[in-house]
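Action item from last week, closing it out:
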Amino acid sequence: MEFNPFIYLAIIFFAAFLTKSITRRIKIPEVTGYVLVGVLMGVSLLHILSPRILDHLSAVSTVALGIIAFIIGVELRMDVIKRLGKSILLIVLFECFGAFLLVFFVLSYFFPGNPHMHLLLASVASATAPAATVAVIKQYKSKGELTSTIMAVVGIDDAMALVIYVFASGIVKAGLTGSEAHFALIIGKTLLSIGESILLGLVTAWLFRRLLVQIRDTEWVMLLIAAALMAILGISEKLGNSELLAVMAFGSILVNTSPTLAKRGTAVVENFSPLFLAAFFLLGGAHLDVRVLGQIGIIGLVYFAARSTGKIGGAALGATIGGAPKQVRTWIGFTLLPQVGVALALALSINKEFTQPMYGSAGAEMAHYIINILLFTTIITEIVGPLLTRFALKKSGEAREQA
């Protein structure tokens, strides 16, 4: 049968409508409900959203990530970062490297013999996908120092995780091919990629301001912000750079150079963001196959436990050393568990890169195990993560209970 995107989008949005109603009644975060319904509709059970359909609808998820990145970017105000700056940097460093190191050493201890796989899994463990956390913050209209810190941390975390992954994959590629890992080249490529992303965001923000300097009509802002986001996503994809980082740079530069324009842009984005966010989490859940548990056994649970401990413990330690407020020290780590998005993208990248002939059967077998482990643990983080985020926001007093 010929693929018709409108039929599937109708099914997705209607499923999201029903899910929103159910989650409100049973009082759980909408994100958790969307992911569970996605798992039900996807490759695990009903096969309504098959792998072929998911490939056709991948652009929807890309746009949703762009919207999420913009929402994070406009929260990265320099006055807030300066006030919380030291603690934010230390939280990011400790939670990223805490997860990375703990996953690597725990897996190496319990499952010795495959350091390449452990290194790649550890590098992906450092990533925190911002989508679920941002969605919970929006749902509960959370505001305060913990919320501001979370938004800054999940924004910077993406760049840090990308750096760690590039280094780790470079070392693994060198090990599998028997060549030397040229660290200077890896550092240069990583810095170039980050620099290109920030420059793209800067140029787009400058053009955006120039074109809208005398215009106050909301429709004009809507058209141009859609053009800006699509351009950043498209150019980043062509260059092979991080779309999230480029869009975050665009939003951050905009809010710090033209707060009024950024506020109008945010108001526009928030009008249509619920559509894309609901679709994103449903599609994300549909990718996840619960049957992989039988293939990966206990290693997936050990990975999840080690990563969670590294994230929660590392974030708390960084916040304590950085002198963050008590509610940040106590609760920040519980908001950093979700993985879908960044980790899923890295898992697919590993599967694509290491199944190439140059890495042999060892690379292909390793990629197979890694993607299954990450798909399984992502199911857990997308169910547990939003619940813990809501718990932390309510305990800190920053979440406003939904009516």
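Closing note: Residues 167 and 183 are 8 Å apart (CA to CA).
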